[in-house]
Every structure is written in structure tokens, then in C-alpha cells.
Write a structure and sequence with these properties.
- The structure is a homotetramer.
- Chain A has 2 domains: about 50 residues, Orthogonal Bundle (Arc Repressor Mutant, subunit A), CATH 1.10.10.60; about 150 residues, Orthogonal Bundle (Tetracycline Repressor, domain 2), CATH 1.10.357.10.
- With about 210 residues, chain A is an all-alpha fold.
- The first copy, chain A, is built from 9 helices and no strands.
- Chain A starts with a helix and ends in a 10-residue tail after the last helix.
- Helix content of chain A is about 80%, strand content about 0%.
- Chains in contact: A-B, C-D.
- At the C-D interface, helix 1, helix 6, helix 7, helix 8 and helix 9 of C face helix 1, helix 6, helix 7, helix 8 and helix 9 of D.
- The structure holds a DNA duplex (21 and 21 nucleotides).
Chain lengths: ~210, ~210, ~210, ~210
Amino acid sequence: MEDKARKQNKRSLIIEAAAKVFANRGYNGTIIADIATEAGIGKGTIYEYFLSKEDLFFAVFQWFVQMTEAEAKVSITALGGSASERLMALNDALLRSWLDMLDMYSLVMEFWSASASSKMRQRFKQAFREGYRDFRQIVSALIRDGIEKAEFRPEVDAESVAAALVGTWDALLLQAWFDEGFDPLTTSRRFMAVLISGLASKPQVISPS
Amino acid sequence: MEDKARKQNKRSLIIEAAAKVFANRGYNGTIIADIATEAGIGKGTIYEYFLSKEDLFFAVFQWFVQMTEAEAKVSITALGGSASERLMALNDALLRSWLDMLDMYSLVMEFWSASASSKMRQRFKQAFREGYRDFRQIVSALIRDGIEKAEFRPEVDAESVAAALVGTWDALLLQAWFDEGFDPLTTSRRFMAVLISGLASKPQVISPS
Amino acid sequence: MEDKARKQNKRSLIIEAAAKVFANRGYNGTIIADIATEAGIGKGTIYEYFLSKEDLFFAVFQWFVQMTEAEAKVSITALGGSASERLMALNDALLRSWLDMLDMYSLVMEFWSASASSKMRQRFKQAFREGYRDFRQIVSALIRDGIEKAEFRPEVDAESVAAALVGTWDALLLQAWFDEGFDPLTTSRRFMAVLISGLASKPQVISPS
Amino acid sequence: MEDKARKQNKRSLIIEAAAKVFANRGYNGTIIADIATEAGIGKGTIYEYFLSKEDLFFAVFQWFVQMTEAEAKVSITALGGSASERLMALNDALLRSWLDMLDMYSLVMEFWSASASSKMRQRFKQAFREGYRDFRQIVSALIRDGIEKAEFRPEVDAESVAAALVGTWDALLLQAWFDEGFDPLTTSRRFMAVLISGLASKPQVISPS
DNA sequence: CATGAATGAGGCTTCATTCAT
DNA sequence: GATGAATGAAGCCTCATTCAT
């Protein structure tokens, strides 16, 4: 038991070291020796815990997904108030937590790239597909709730808006990654105000701040 | 004159062959020999036109940007009607043209990845930053036009909505890339209906179709 | 301690294998794989000990210099007798030790060539300059000693004679390298007899044998 | 006839351009394109006059040998006076003419290197062997002449002294090549004074200047 | 378990040479 | 004759992976 725990710890140690190095140098720019150095262990040790570089990379991916999902779930369950308020709160929580780790954002791009072309593309693609589906589900549930409570208009297509929203969050962070002068949080809040006004059944004044 | 033209032709030939191979196998999965074979030329010939694999990759990037920008500009200039109609038309045109080359979408992911970690990251990052800025500019001009014509509400922040929209288009295509069962065109139209309703100064019924 | 020793041993192993192959095929005619084969190791192993082919070549040069210098020093310290006798003895010792490794003489030519044109030319040129200076110093000290002891004429310029002598030894070996029928030892002894007679303060009969 | 002359001219043009580039960059560091540029012609043209890079290099060698031999012969035939004076005059003439083209001296090293390891080594080795033999012959004839005229001692071995002398000239230039601060002309003159004194049948005071 | 020295497959790039114009 | 675009053989070097200690 304790043994297993120690093993898990070292596994995590390696994963987090690998995440750091992959984020800085990209998958192909990373050499195993760098990860070992970052983790403070020997090169060979990595192969005691992972089958290959690819295997380790996928483990980093899973760790990353788990981490961000966990955070997203915390954000969502903590929400209260009207559907509009909850949407805006979700927007804030997500962007804030991602902005906190914008230096890790390059990992996401590596994951996208891996899903497009690496030998592991199938595994990545499937994980992304399912991840996006889950996330769209969560957001669309939130919107449907607003519709049911007559806060949002009944003719709104919750799934479409959810899909777009999920994408918008991704893409604003992407733009922030490219452009230091771009403020995704303010941008998103102002955009959400417009969108929520479009969702709302009663005309409302926009006030994002 | 003719000589220069021939040289340009061969350059383009190589770029397009490279785009194909890079899209299929990714930057690192691609070997120069494959590109040469795809282009029907000798390996060494590529080095008559490009300094290195990286140089060729960046040339593919520039070619891709130019191509998509050209298409985007055509879409925009061709627009007529109200601001709402023009926004929706732009949505349709962009998504349609991208869906036509969804098999090339993996290139975009390679470009993102390159901007995150490759040795060329600065060049790519700058190009993306500028590309996004330009595109946000175009879309926000369109929205501001709607505000000026009192079609859209004056309190709308055109820049924020433009940034979000630009991102949404990107991200819906991304989701489509991961999920064959995902229909980004319909999704985007339904979402646009909501968004436009949020932008509009007069209450309006949503009818995306 | 032992680890370091093993590392040094393998380094030496590679250097000596490389010396052999470089001597046979020249710097540019040598491929790394040949050296690895000669050393009985894998190609990659060489790069654990040397940064590049050039780096290895320079290491061979340093090893060679050290080796021949060591031998020269042994020859010189072992000398006894009159200045004339010591000069003649030095002549014999040097030529004999070089003749023992005439098959390695091509290395010297490779080193010269490297000092003339390779990317490493500065490093080589400097090493040669210093090597020749040191050697001239040693020989001229010997001659000055003869002058001080009134064995040699006072008006002799020790430095010039030393420089010429050092060169003569080089060049006789060079001629021997080109011409199997050329006997540099006998030639040098007969020449030394004349030279020593020119140095000597008292007329003396020449008897090289 | 005129056609042949033009052909010869272009051949010479290429050889001299090649000599320049080979001297600067060495045989292996030189690429055919550089020679073509230096000669102001097209790359392919070189192959109209020479079979290969090696062939061209050997032609440069022959041109170089011819050039230096011609100069040496001029020096020798112009000599007058006693054997001692002629020897010293030869020394001066040779060193002066070589010092005039010390920037070409690296070519000699390339030739040596080629004789040691290139695929053409046999051709080069033979040429050097013969060249040295011829040169030793010339010098030893001069010395024998001095012996016959009783200017030099009868027990001197003309061949050995000639071989050493020929080598000394080579090697002093070599040292000058490595060491900017080394003056081979003065050095050689002072050395020659000693040597001539060793050769002379009557005791003589050394006065190199 | 942990290590890191050893390995060799693999890929980018160079450049002598060819040959169609 | 002259040219230079095209070629592909060849070689340096990297780095994921193995395995003896």
C-alpha cells in the first residue's frame, strides 16, 4: 500500500516535470534527458514508469485534463443565482483559472497537434471529442435550466450556444496566448453581456462590469 | 521573366506538396523525402528553393495564411444587406470555406504548435498575433457599422464581440475536427441568431434557418 | 575514481582508433562509422566523449603532440657528453622515434592541412606555433650551452641554427615519407657532421658514423 | 590554333581561380561553385575543362609545381661566384620568392595532405618524390661543384647536405606560416653561414649579412 | 529499484556531377 | 561551348530506448 503510494508519487513527479518541459519546448523539442533532469532522477527511471515518450506524453495529457476538469467542476457546482449570473460566473471562473496557468497553455497546443498528426492521434482525438462533448453537456444543461425557468427564451438552441461558448473560451485564451496586450477576461465579460441579453426572455440592459 | 515564373511555379509546387504532407503527418512526422516524392522531384531540389525544413514549413504557413485571408476578404466584400445579415453571411461563408478544407485543418494545429514551442516560435507567434488583430478589426468594423446605423445597441462593445466571434469560428471548426458528428455550420447559425438578437436594438425573433 | 579512469580509458581508446583511421584515410576521407568500428564500439558512443568529428580530430592532435613531446623530452634529458655529441644524439633519437611511427606521419600532414584551411585552423595554428617555439627553445638552449662552453663558436646565432635544425628534421621525415628509398637517418647524420663542424670552434674532421 | 589558345586561356583562368580558393578554404572546404564564381564562369563550364574536382586539384598542383620550379631554375642559372656565394644566393632567391607568395603556402599543405590520404595519393606522392629528387639533385650538384673546386671539403656528403638543405627551406617557410613573428630569411641566412663554414675547406669567419 | 553508458536507426543537409537548353 | 537547375548518394549527428551494474 505504502509502496504503491510511493510509486504513485514518483509517477506524478515525473508527469509534472514532463508537463513543465513539454510546455516549454514542445513534444518534439523535448528530450527525455531534460525531463529526467527536471524531475531530479535518472533517465532510465522514467522507463520504469512509462513505456515510451509517447506514453508519458499521453499521461501528461490525462493529468492535465483531470486537473482542468476538476477545476471546472468546482466552478460549476459552486454556482448560485440566476442562470445569467451562473453563466457569467462560470465565464469568470474558467478564464481566471486558465489565466493562472497561461504558461501551460502551450501544452494544449501540443495536445491539439498530437491529435492531428502523431502516432497517438486516435487516442488524443477521442479524448478531445469526449472532453468537448462532456463540457458542452454541462454548459448546455445550464442554459436549458435557464430556459426551463423562463429566464431564457424557449426558442434558443441550448446545444449550439453551449458549443459556441465552450469554443469561445478556448479561443479567447488562444488569442491571449498570442497577444500579451489582449485581455481575455474583460473581453469575455463584455461579450457574455451581449450573449446573455440575446438569451434573455426579457429585454435587459447590458452591464458586464 | 519566364525564368522567374518557372521558379515561382516550382516553389509553389513544393509548398503545396509540403502542405499536404505536413497536414497528414505533422511537422515532425514529415520527412523531406516524402515531400520530394509528393512533389515528384528530387530531395535536393527542395533545398534550391528553401533554406531548411523549418523555412519550408514557414513558407507553407505564409501560403496558408494568404490563401485563407484572400478567401475571407472575398467573403466580406461580397456582403450586402443589414449588419445582422452581413454577420450571418460572413459566418456562413467562413465556415463553408473552412469546411471545404477541413482535411487541411490539422495544419492549423501544427502552426499553433509551432508557435508554442518550435525554434520558429517568435515568427509564428507574431504572425498569429497580427493575423488575429487584423481579423478582429474587420469584424469589429462590421459591428460598429451596425451600431452607427442604430441596428445594434450602442452599449455593445464591438471589439469584445468581434474577438469572441473570431474565436468561436476557430473553435467550432476545432470541435468539428475532433467530432465527425458535430455540425459546425448549423451550430454556428443557431448561435449567431442568439448573439445577433443580443446585439439588436429592437427585440427580434430568432430564426437561424 | 574508477569511473573516471574507465571514462578516460574509453576516451583514449577512441582517440587511438581515430588516429589510426585518420592516418590512413585523412580527415575528410574518414567517416565516423569507421572510427567506431575500429574502436569496436557504436557510432553514438563517440559522441558521448567528443562534441563533433572536429573535436575528436583536435583531441587526436593533442594526444599526438603530447606523445611526441614526451618522447622528445625523454631523448633530451637522457643526453650526456659534449654539445656536439648531444646534438648528434638528439638527431638520432628523434629520427629513430619518428621512423618507428612513419605510418603515422600522414597524421602530421593532416594536421598541417587542418591548420591551413579547416574551420579549426586557429586552434591548430596556435598549437603549432607554440610547439615549434618550444622545440626551437630547447634546441637553441643546447647550442647556447655549447657556445658558453667554448665548444661552439661565439658568433653562431643559436636561435637560427635551432630553427633550421628543427625544420630539417621535419623535412627529412617528409622526404622519407615520399620516398621509400630515402634514408633520413644516414642523411641526417652526415648532414649533422657538416653542421657541427660549422658550429665548432676548432677545426674538426667530419665522421658521422 | 587560336581556338586552342582560347581554350588554354580559360583552362588557366580556372586553375588560377581554383588555386586561390583552394588556398583559402582547403581542398575539402572548397566547393566547385566558389571556384566558378571566382573565375566568373558557370559551374558547368569547369567540367568542360576538367574531369572532376580531383582532376582540377591535381592540375592546380601541376601548375604550382611548374611555377615554382620555373622560378627556382631562374634563380639557379643566374648564379655566379664561388660555391658558397651561390649557395647563399640560392637560399635568398628561394626564400624571397616563396615569401612573396606566403599566402599560397597553404596550398603546399593541401598538397601534402592530398599525398597522404586522398584518393589521388599515389599521383601526388610520386610527383613529390620526383620533385624532391630533382631539387636535391640540383643542390647537390652545386655542392659537388664546390668540392671539385676544392672550395668545400672532400669528405662532405653532397647528397645528404642537399637533402637537408632542401628540407630546411621547406620547413623554415612552414614555421613562418605558423608564426608571423618568425623571420625565415634572416634565420636562414644565419644558418647558412654556419653550414657553409662547415662545408668550407678553409676556416672562415661567419658573416651572414 | 535506479541509473546512465552504450547504441544505431533515422533524418537533415551538402555538394559533386549531370544534362537539357 | 556555356550554363545552372536538378539530383541523390553520402555522412554527421541526435536521441529514444536498453540493459548491465
